[in-house]
Specification:
Blueprint: H1 2-5, H2 10-20, E1 29-32, H3 42-57, E2 61-66, H4 76-89, E3 97-99, H5 104-116, E4 120-123, H6 127-133, H7 151-163, E5 172-175, E6 190-194, E7 208-210, H8 212-222, E8 227-231, H9 238-248, E9 254-258, H10 270-278, H11 293-299, H12 303-313, H13 324-338, E10 341-342, E11 344-345, E12 348-353, E13 362-367, E14 377-382, E15 385-389, E16 409-412, E17 417-425, E18 431-439, E19 454-455, E20 458-459, E21 464-471, E22 495-503, E23 515-518, E24 522-526, E25 535-542, H14 546-555
Parallel strand pairs: 1-2, 2-3, 8-9, 10-23, 12-18, 16-19, 21-25
Antiparallel strand pairs: 4-5, 5-6, 6-7, 11-22, 12-15, 13-14, 15-20, 16-17, 17-18, 21-22, 23-24, 24-25
Helix pairs in contact: 3-12, 8-9, 12-13
The protein binds one RNA strand of 74 nucleotides through helix 6, strand 6, helix 8, helix 13 and strand 19.
Amino acid sequence: MSTSEKTPDFIRAIVAEETASNKWGGRVVTRYPPEPNGYLHIGHAKAICLDFGVAQEFGGQGHLRFDDTNPTKEETEFVESIKADIRWLGFDWGEHLYYASDYFEQLYLWAVELIRKGKAYVDDLSMDEIREHRGTLTAPGRDSPWRDRPVIDNLDLFARMRAGEFPDGAKTLRAKIDMAAGNVNLRDPVMYRIRHASHHRTGDAWCIYPLYDWAHGQSDSIERITHSLCTMEYEDHRPLYDWYLDALGIYHPRQIEFARLNVSHTVLSKRKLLQLVSEKIVAGWDDPRMPTLSGMRRRGYPPEAIRDFCDRIGVGKTQNLIELALLEHCVREDLNKRAPRGMAVLHPLKVVIENFPEGKVEEMEAVNNPEDATMGARKVPFARELWIEQDDFREDPPPKYFRLSPGVEVRLRYAYIIKCTGVVKNERGEVVEVHCTYDPATRGGTADRKVKGTIHWVSVQHARSAEVRLYDHLFLTLKPDESEDWKASVNPNSLERLMNCYVEPALANAAPGERFQFERTGYFCVDPDTAPGHLVFNRTVSLRDAWARLEKAETR
RNA sequence: UGCCUUGUGGCGCAACGGUAGCGCGUCUGAUUCUGAAUCAGAAGAUCGAGGUUCAAAUCCUCGCGGGGCAACCA
């Protein structure tokens, strides 16, 4: 609904315009082209939502194409995780699953064609020599001594490169463009390198592999992509993208670049993410603190919320830093209307209701989701001894504290109004038990007596114990990336494991992946570490907490 | 001292020569058996200087500032 009223971003505007002018014969075809060398993260989600979203909105088709041109870095494991993550996000490539490696033969033929046209040559320069000849950002490069090798020799040498006659790095195939170009990408870019390495899909069929620039545009062309959307760092590559297609005279898609996503309090570079995992700063790629899709899934972020987020951040060309708070807002908004409620006590404190008969149990009716009546209600057992949150009792309450304290009344959610009559302390003077009396006339729903506070609880004898993992920002700083020593700002308290929590019995059989709102504390998701007799919940995101703000403001 | 790109509230995105608007965040207040949600309201912006024009965020100059690019990575 919101999208229909929103003015389209510049990419959708271009697509709409070109659709209106029938530039592409009524087709809209996009592609998401990951390299299978790592896990997908929220930044990739932006690109995926854009690529598949645009195709969907214009009645076109989105392709998934693995850009697998570098056998030394890519693995099947990543292919599978990427497919799973994209499906989980909610997108479908239908029949259109492709691999750049499927096009190796065609690419080879086209390379031969460029050689014949005098637009490519075999170079004997070493990697270092090529770099040296390339010049610098401000100084032009120099031609390779092999640049004017006769076509016939180039043809012969290139065939022998493919045949495996030369060792790794001995020769390359280069496009003959302009060693003095201001755009460094145009200084005779390498098209093929020799790598005697086996590829995750083509095995040992090849020992020469195309580079990104040579593979990408031609793959787009083969698939008859209309709009090839990529991030800004490829902007300087567009002239080369266009050059190859024009030199070949084949179908020519339009490349459009947009700014990649940056999110506060985290890092989104594959290298850094890998470091977090390999240095065991986090538990793995799917650690709930990670900005990976697998991490967010485990944490309990719904795919709908992530898509909504990608929708709201927009698409532009300027450098951006999206506040994590926006993502959290999207998660809360989605979960608020869908997550069933439950009561759980994270930091337990025992309450004894002195005038409630020992051994007596009452069943209280609790609404499953006040936002959605169709989700029904459940029974919650109530007895003489209860667990409440330590934060919900203060022996010496500060001003505006609406919860339990000596002589003060609060409502127990869905149950009775109770009044604190006294406390029991241990030898260290800490309150270990709170004594109360209840008013039988105030049972859930009946009495309309006003009390300032309502707190949640769990019956001691019916409680199930659980482990709860609380997460905070992985980094303390807004832009950890900015610092050379980015790991210094890792939040030492980003994970807090509470081993001694109690949840209401209705939650006893929750299955991994199920999401709940624990009333007054936050949204939680059952972790796969859950085993029979051992419940584990991840806090997806806390509820907004006006009291915490107030208290924080007072302290300052 | 090359090439490409970009400057609108704290953050992100609109306004395409005609009253600068939206979302998040922040702050009030109402309401509430979740200090949640919801509702109402507030504060807060066009990088600078010149021009063109009745009128400029928008067009033109000149400054200043961000980002990217020199793998046989993608």
